[in-house]
Write a structure and sequence with these properties.
505 residues; mainly alpha; 30 helices
């Protein structure tokens, strides 16, 4: 006689869709929004008292043990679900697992309970508990569930750990997860890859693992070692996809603005750099290749690498080769020509490269702003480190091209996230730098004081605080007092009142 599975209770406890069903829907319907933003918010604050309880993990383990050894019991499932909701999962996960492992529980029943919570859980902690149980007793048949959930940041750490423990070929499962994941989920998946992975995975690590995401630098060193970056770049010929991928790995390894350049920890670094330089010059330097070369060049001239470059002859030679190439008139002409490109991504790449190579780009950026007034990258490059002699032209363009009337929406507590705040973010980019340019951009500051995002109002205040009193227009005090009367954020309201008082002295 077939035993009834106690966890197959006909769906979720509330009857609403589970997080797993939402994850499947996100998987089916691709969107430009980051994956982690597409799961519904179902994570209220845990109970501080319950979370601090010495017995929280023991109570969870006791409820699970009872369910594993009992007939179907929706009431007990509800009790366990409630207990899971009340804790901070990572404060208790290790103790919950240790307690369950200390009991002689049948693995097939652990797996059944794990599948139920992973598939039907409505709260992140319930899903994480299911993932934990699948790590304890799951099989290859559970890999699909773990990979679907692991593609989301909320579950990637737990899902990757469970894949390692439950799959007969964990590297293959992790690589499949990494291919579909993004952001921190990809960091978790690539970071878990270990040992002698097969050729397909090694090739993928060099060709595709780094996408240009700022988080690439968290796993680039692991990818370079496991994928044998230097060995790949030592080949006589490379296809364009592999060379481009290798360039992105090197960019991530030399990201001076990231968590810390890792190239100096890569034993084959010089060999990889020489190989990349050889392939780039042999095939002709393109704008994309030049971008990777610039990233590497910034690192080689950064203080964190300067000691090594001074002390070791091979590092001095490779730095000289990169510096010579980047100063070459051909490279500079490549950037200047690309500043006339109509294609937006080509223009942006050229504009960034121009900034790093000290090639004048502000006239081209002003022309581009006329065509694409909502492009935040263009405005950032216009205003960042803008010299005093150019600020008037940038401010005049912003006042003319931005919809200032519609940006004076009145104050709210909005943070300014989402596509609908495109113009608000452009205003932020400009106003947040106006403290360095006293007397320039009062109309933009006034607009920001009445903007819906709290950050824009804070940046407007910062700009005014950075101006000497004689540079502030007389009307500013009245505008600040009126803004303070409408301000819904207490500390901003107080700051506005204080600044009005300073200007009234």
């Amino acid at each position: 006689m077939t035993r009834t599975q106690p966890w197959d209770l006909g769906g979720t406890l509330s009857g609403h869709p589970s997080l797993y069903s939402n994850a499947l829907a996100v998987e089916r319907h691709r969107s430009d929004r980051p994956r982690h933003q597409q799961l519904p918010e179902k994570a209220p604050r845990p109970s501080r008292r319950a979370n601090r309880s010495t017995y929280a993990a023991a109570r969870i383990a006791a409820s699970a043990t009872r369910l594993i050894g009992s007939a179907p019991d929706r009431a007990m499932l509800s009790v366990l679900d409630t207990r899971l909701r009340r804790i901070v999962w990572r404060d208790h996960a290790h103790t919950v697992e240790a307690t369950l492992r200390a009991s002689p529980l049948p693995s097939d029943r652990i797996r059944e309970l794990g599948r139920w919570f992973a598939v039907h859980g409505e709260h992140p902690n319930a899903v994480r508990f299911g993932i934990l149980l699948l790590g304890m007793a799951g099989t290859d048949d559970d890999g699909g569930i773990l990979k679907t959930l692991g593609a989301f940041w909320a579950f990637s750490t737990e899902a990757c750990a469970s894949l390692v423990r439950s799959q007969t070929d964990p590297n293959r499962a992790l690589a499949e997860l990494a291919r579909q994941a993004e952001g921190w989920a990809r960091v978790d998946a690539v970071g878990r890859l270990e040992g002698a992975v097969d050729t397909d995975i090694r090739d993928w690590l060099i060709r595709e693992s780094c996408t240009g995401d700022t988080l690439d630098s968290y796993f680039a060193l692991h990818a370079a070692r496991l994928g044998d970056l230097a060995g790949v770049l030592a080949r006589e010929t490379l296809d364009e996809e592999t060379l481009a991928g290798a360039g992105r790995v090197l960019e991530a390894l030399t990201d001076v603005d990231g968590p810390g350049p890792a190239l100096t920890s890569y034993d084959d670094a010089v060999r990889a750099l020489n190989g990349y330089l050889l392939h780039c010059t042999a095939g002709g330097v393109t704008l994309q290749r030049l971008w990777s070369l610039l990233s590497i060049g910034r690192f080689l001239n950064d203080p964190r690498a300067s000691t090594m470059c001074k002390e070791q002859h091979e590092w001095r030679r490779v730095r000289h080769r990169f510096t010579t190439l980047l100063a070459d008139p051909v490279s500079r002409k490549l950037v200047r020509d690309a500043l006339t490109a109509e294609e937006p991504s080509t223009f942006r790449l050229a504009a960034w490269a121009a900034q790093w190579m000290d090639i004048p780009a502000r006239p081209a950026l002003l022309r581009r702003a006329e065509l694409e007034p909502h492009d935040s990258t263009v405005w950032y490059l216009l205003i960042h480190d803008c010299p005093s002699e150019d600020i008037s032209a940038v401010v005049r363009a912003a006042e003319r091209l931005l919809p200032l009337r519609s940006l004076r929406t009145g104050p709210t507590t909005e943070l300014g996230l989402g596509r609908e705040f495109e113009d608000d973010r452009v205003l932020d980019l400009i106003v947040s730098r106006l403290d360095q340019h006293p007397g320039h951009g009062w109309e933009l500051i006034e607009t920001a004081l009445g903007n819906r995002t709290s950050r824009n109002r804070r940046m407007a205040l910062r700009a005014l605080k950075g101006w000497p009193t004689e540079c502030v227009p007389p009307v500013a005090r009245r505008v600040l007092l009126a803004a303070a009367a409408r301000e819904p954020v207490p500390d901003i309201r107080t700051e506005m009142t204080h600044e009005a008082g300073r200007l009234g002295c």
